[in-house]
Amino acid sequence: MKNVVAPRIAALHGYVPGEQPSDAERVIKLNTNENPYPPSPRVATAVADAASRLALYPAPLADPLREAAAARYGVDPEQVLVGNGSDELLAICLRACACDGGSVAYPVPTYSLYATLASIEGARAIEVPMEPGADLPEALLMSGADVIFLCSPNSPYGTPIRLNEIARAAERAPGLVVADEAYVDFGGESALELLVDHPNLLVLRSFSKSFSLAGLRLGLAFASAALIAELAKVKDSYNVSRLAIAGGVAALNDYEWMTGSVQKVARTRDRVIETLRARGYRIEDSRANFFWLDCGDDGGDVVSRRLRDRGILVRFFDTPVLRSGVRVTVGTDEDMDAFLGAMLD
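Below the sequence we write its predicted structure tokens.
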């Protein structure tokens, strides 16, 4: 296809998601940071009702969801952009701010999609090593990048970036700073309060994790109204379905359901980490719905394959920095007891 596809795309290594087993395969799925608990029952009711109007286009800017999100998070509707998952919103940021040979910087290790999106948009990626829980590296702050991605809590360790560090990045960066808060509901601090003082800051949220809606594909971006208006220029015309809009509104209107689910996950996370530490495993403090497990001499590849043989999926990253361990999504107590049994036998 070299004469059909652009050379840059032909040379691209696409993003590789975690293993998605078939519905018929019985496994304990601890590899893609999904919430093990169901979404609010109100979501299914709202989606079913919206299904009766599928012949009509949805609102181009998902206005009902913008309004619900604005009311929930204390901003104006004009400060909200809705995406087909927060992944689309990440791509929109690059499309608007780092196109035509621009640059994007981020600390590593982190969400590996950032590198893929940079390649797709033809942006130069500046990867700056950072230890979990550390201050942002000076090399990142001085990178001069058009876009800086800061995942907080960060993957794969689950450690947050302190708000004063995010503010420092926004003060020093010449371009856009994105606080990717896909996991913040599980115990992180949100940068939403920083928006009023930093017009170049954008905060991303996802419905996939805390709201248990990974299959619906919904994300929210919060920023100044002026910045949101510019980003909206490069989104797809009807980028969020009528079903997703209805489901998102229902989820936000049953916020207590989400917080109850998150609290259960956090309790299980802390219990499992404490149990593993008592057996000598090294684990960073996590404020996400996953944790990073250093596998010691066995290495992440051996441990992930051993767990796979027991019907338990975890995430192994075959990179020099990460191949010594695995990332473990927090499942139900029953799921995690099975995981502990397999690890500690």
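The radius of gyration is 20 Å.
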